[in-house]
Design a protein that fits this description.
globular; mainly beta; five-stranded mixed sheet; 22-stranded antiparallel β-barrel; 57% strand
Length: 695
């Protein structure tokens, strides 16, 4: 009862905030920033308008290109590991499937945008293993449900990757890096080139990166990727701006594992020598921005996302009991096309209550074309008990959405946001999601109090809606839902040299979709029957010591619980148990030192104990069939430390290369032996070194 009362109060507060905003027509603006916040970044993703970080009521983090460079991070997942409230899990070496759990939510609860284009699969899944940091200007992380602005798949937050804009005289930056794994000496290499330049009227940027990694296992563990990024900005006049962007990730990952990890057992005596997956992931964006007047802005955004994926597992019965002829394969091609128009109307910009009213419409269409063949052995291969199943899916769905948001700043201290979005989906029908936030800046003490509440949704996957792989789709599924609220405090000391922050959050997840058997048949389908919740605290801190030294870190305490398992008796989603792969304790720290041309960074990441799954198999000699042992186990915690250092020569007489930078990075330098996902080996100590030249 107490929990229901809290939920009712939070919803009531949210409705009051939203209606107050709509009737007063007020919203945030880019006002003069307060003392102590002069260096804070401007965040676009949280409101679709530029708002200083200190005026946001929601939890947000901005990772800049300079930070990525100091970390020497080549993959986006490396920088996301250090963000409070996000738990990153990679199932093995570089290139292995990588999931992100936001504040205890599911791994498909975070919307990922590249220059405004959503790149998730239909239903929210996103593999962070293939996303590189090439040509990235900044990454904006917004925690909590953002469906009021972005609709489905933003149920747990938004991660927005914004690419670099060309500027200045034309220049080319070339870098090369080489290293090896300590486990087996396998080669690692990274090559990059970027060409950019521009003026106020036209600017362009182009980047290419190549990655080669031999992997940490002795057999079939190589990863390679090619990334291409381009952006063109044109401004024909003061009132018109046009931006074109495109990004392609072309990857190949060879992985020998096809059960519960890379540890051989009786049924899987060896590792698969030739199983692999290839991905071609492309996004294209075009934006036209019309500043009709200083008070009225129109934005037209068009985007397309293409994901072409091939999985191939040739027959190898001597290596794996499941690999009977003719083997397994999956060919899938997913596309998403979007059109978004929104207008920003600024009111009272010269008064004490400056406001912004945002109104928009978005259309989205998703398509899937899938062809799959899988072969599974049920008993001794000599007995020939195996089956093959085919799946052919060719489906599409679309969505219309209307959203409205009002923002305001009162007496340059109180910043309010309220709004909602209405979805009209071809599968689940109409759904409405509101949200509201508040931030109160106390100038005299450099204190910010903030809070936010809202709802979020996640649409079903194509498999859940339309079926395949031996299951029956359920066209009547509703989206998964969340109600979340948070309250936080940010405090500055010593003119902003010391920054501290703390946030408490609660999430309630309802209508979770799960796999169920149809009574009286051997067929399965999907249903909205499960519930879960999470709560926790995020603490962040940073101090600029002086002499080029900066220290910082964060800590997250997280509790999760399954509140309703839907009566399925699922071992891995059991009532009263915590959700899998969500550590109760996690955190990170860093120490940066900048002195003349020298840059050094020492960073550590801690992930505590968490529940996980274990899958083993053995052959029953009495029946000739397999016995599968599935267990819920506790995965040990781990601590990993990384080091990055570089030295830049700015002045080189009679040399066209200016500047010239040498760099070295080490990962897991304490040689920690651990498993991010139970049963899958994680990389041990490894080093890379290289050089970067600017022409």
């Amino acid at each position: 009862m107490a929990k229901q009362a809290r939920m009712r109060r939070a919803r009531w507060i949210l409705r009051v905030a939203a209606w107050f905003q709509l009737f007063t027509g007020v919203g945030p603006q880019a006002a003069a920033q307060e003392e102590g916040y002069l260096l804070e970044p401007v965040v676009i993703t949280a409101t679709r308008t530029g708002v200083p970080l200190g005026e946001l009521g929601v939890s947000a983090t901005v990772i800049t290109a300079e930070e990525i460079e100091r970390r020497q991070s080549s993959d986006v997942l490396e920088v996301l590991r250090d963000a409070a409230g996000l738990n990153v899990v990679q199932q093995g070496s570089r290139g292995a499937q990588t999931e992100l759990y936001p504040r205890g939510g599911e791994s498909n609860y975070t919307m990922v945008l590249i220059d405004g284009v959503q790149v998730n699969e239909a239903g929210g899944a996103f593999d962070f293993a293939n996303l590189t940091t090439l040509d990235i200007d900044r990454i904006e992380i917004i925690r909590g449900p953002q469906s009021a602005l972005y609709g489905s798949d933003a149920i747990g937050g938004v991660i927005h990757v914004i690419t670099k804009k060309g500027k200045g005289k034309p220049a080319a930056t070339v870098s090369t890096a080489h290293g090896a794994h300590s486990e087996n000496g396998n080669y690692m290499g990274e090559q990059k080139i970027r060409i950019s330049g521009g003026s106020e009227s036209i600017a362009a940027s182009f980047g290419y990166a190549r990655v080669d990694d031999g992997g940490i296992l002795d057999l079939n563990n190589a990863f390679s990727s090619n990334t291409v990024s381009t952006r063109i900005d044109v401004r024909p006049g003061e009132k018109l701006g046009i931006t074109f962007g495109g990004r392609l990730h072309d990857t190949r990952y060879e992985f020998p594992t096809e059960h519960g990890g890379d540890r051989p057992d009786e049924v899987f005596p060896g590792l698969d020598p030739d199983q692999f997956q290839e991905n071609r992931d492309a996004s294209v964006s075009g934006e036209v921005r019309v500043d009709w007047s200083p008070e009225w802005e129109h934005v037209f955004h068009m985007g397309a996302h293409f994901l072409d994926r091939d999985f191939v597992d040739p027959p190898n019965p001597a290596q794996s009991a499941f690999d009977a002829a003719p083997g397994s394969r999956t060919e899938s091609f997913q596309t998403r096309a979007t059109f978004d128009y929104h207008t920003n109307l600024r009111l009272g910009t010269n008064g004490k209550v400056p406001s912004t009213l945002t109104a928009g419409y978005e259309f989205e269409r998703e398509d899937l074309d899938l062809d799959s063949l899988s072969t599974i052995v049920f008993g001794d291969p000599e007995l020939g008990f195996f089956s093959t199943s085919d799946a052919e899916i060719e489906e599409d769905r679309h969505n219309h959405a209307f959203y409205l948001q009002a923002q305001s700043s009162l007496i340059e201290r109180l910043h309010l946001v309220g709004g909602f979005r209405v979805e009209d989906n071809s599968e689940f029908g109409i759904d409405v999601n509101p949200r509201g936030s508040i931030a109160w800046n106390i100038k005299e003490t450099d204190t910010r109090l903030r809070g936010a509440a809202g709802t979020g949704i996640k649409e079903p996957t194509f498999l859940e809606n339309f079926g395949g792989f031996g299951t029956v789709g359920n066209p009547d599924l509703e989206p998964e839902e969340s109600f979340s609220w948070e309250a936080g405090l940010d405090q500055l000391f010593w003119n902003g040299r010391i920054q501290l922050g703390a946030t408490y959050f609660e999430n309630q997840y309802d209508n979770l979709i799960t796999f169920v058997f149809i009574p009286g048949t051997a067929t399965s389908t999907f249903a909205n029957i499960q519930e879960a919740e999470s709560r926790g605290v995020e603490v962040t801190g940073q101090i600029t010591v002086g002499w080029g030294v900066t220290l910082g870190g964060n800590y997250t305490y997280l509790e999760t619980e399954v509140t309703d398992d839907g009566g399925t008796g699922n071992l891995f989603f059991a009532k009263g148990k915590p959700l899998l792969r969500r550590p109760r304790h996690s955190g990170s720290f860093f120490a940066d030192w900048l002195w003349k041309g020298l840059s050094a960074r020492l960073a550590g990441t801690y992930v505590g104990r968490r529940d996980d799954t274990s899958f083993r198999a053995e052959l029953d000699p009495a029946t000739g069939f397999y016995l599968f042992d599935t267990r819920r186990l506790v995965n040990d915690g781990y601590f990993v430390m990384d080091l990055a250092a570089s030295y830049t020569l700015e002045e080189l007489s009679r040399c066209p290369v200016k500047p010239l930078k040498f760099f070295l990075r080490g990962r897991n330098i304490l040689d920690e032996e651990y498993e991010e996902a139970l049963g899958f080996s994680s990389p041990r100590i490894r080093f890379m070194g290289g050089v970067e030249l600017v022409f």
